[in-house]
Amino acid sequence: MGCDGGTIPKRHELVKGPKKVEKVDKDAELVAQWNYCTLSQEILRRPIVACELGRLYNKDAVIEFLLDKSAEKALGKAASHIKSIKNVTELKLSDNPAWEGDKGNTKGDKHDDLQRARFICPVVGLEMNGRHRFCFLRCCGCVFSERALKEIKAEVCHTCGTAFQEDDVIVLNGTKEDVDMLKARMEERRLRVKLGKKTKKSKVAEPISRPDGNEETPGPSKVKAGKPEETGLDSREKKASSAPKSAATSESSLGKAGKPLCGALKRSIADSEESEAYKSLFTTHSSAKRSKEESAHWVTHTSYCF
After folding, report:
1. Where are stretches of biased composition, namely Basic residues (predicted)?
2. 76 Cβ partners below 8 Å, 6+ apart?
C-alpha cells in the first residue's frame, strides 16, 4: 500500500472525487478562431476565404482539401460541408494601420497584445479580434462589423456598392445558434439550386423528345372559321387551279416529242464551231488519238512513259 517511511498522505490524495471541468481560456479561443485557419490550423494569410457557416480558412488549404479527400484527415469534419470552391467566398479585408505584426519582435521577447487585430471594420473602425461581431456579404465578400450594418441601414454594400439581401449576410465565427441558422439557410439554398437545375434539364429535354408536329396538325386557332359549303368550294377551286400549273411545268421540262430540253443534249466537241486550239484540249480531238504503233504493247501503262 505504500505510505511507509513516515509519509503522511492527505485526503485528496487518497479519496478520488469528481474531476474538475477544464475551463477553456476565452482569449486563447478567440485567437484560435480569428487568427488561424480552421482546416490546417495555420496562421491566416491572404487569400482568406470563409464558408457559408462563417468559418475562416486559407484558400490554399481549402484547395488541397478538395483535391485530396482521404479518410485519414481528422480535420476534414470542419470542412465536410465544402463540396467545391464555389461554396467559399474570398474575403475583402481592411488592414489595421496600428498592427505591427512581427516587425518589432527582433529579440523574441515582445509582448503579444491579444486585443490588437490585423483587420478592422472599414466603416466604424472596430478591430476584428473577436470582441465584436463581424459579418461578410456572400455576394461580394466585403467584411463589416455588425454594428456598422445596424447603424447604417442600406440595401447596398458600403464599400463596393453591390446590392445584397438579408440572406447574403453571414456572421463570422458566430455562436451555436448562429451556426444552426446559417446551416439551415445553406441547405435551403442548395436545395433551391438543385430544383432549378432539374427544371432547366426538363425544359431542354422537351423539344428534343417532341417531333415537330405543329405544322402538320394546326390548332383550332389556326383553322379559319367559316361555312362548310364555302370551305369545300375554295378547296375545289385550289385543286382545279393547281392542275393546269402542274401540267404546264411537266410540258416545259420535256420537249415536243417527250425529249429533254436542248440544253440537256450532249454535243460533241468535234462538231462544234470552236477553234482548233480549243478542240485540241479535249481527248476526242484527232491529235489526242494515237495509232497502234504509238500505243503501248503492255496492258497497264501510265502517261509518264510517253
Report:
1. 193-202
2. 65, 69
What nine digits make up the cell of 80? Answer: 465536410
* Residue 52: band (very low, low, confident or very high) from pLDDT cuts 50, 70, 90: very high
CB 54 within 8 A of CB 44: no
Alpha-carbon gap, residue 85 to 63, rounded angstroms: 7
- Amino acid identity of residue 16, one-letter, is K
Segment 113-124 shows an average pLDDT of 84
Average pLDDT, the chain: 75
User: Average pLDDT of 125-147?
Assistant: 92
d(CA 78, CA 55): 9
What global pTM score does this model have?
A: 0.58
Note whether 108 and 67 are within 8 A (CB): no
Can you read off the three cell numbers belonging to residue 26?
A: 476565452
- The pair phi, psi for residue 62, each rounded to 5°, is -65, -40
In 3D, which of 18, 89, 22 has the Cα closest to residue 53? 89
Tell me if 162 sits within 8 A of 124, measured CB to CB.
no
Amino acid identity, residue 39?
L
Q: What is the mean pLDDT of residues 120-147?
A: 92
Are the C-beta atoms of 157 and 140 separated by less than 8 Å? yes
DSSP letter for each residue of 239-271: HHHHHHHHHHHHHHHB-TTSPBPGGGS---TTT
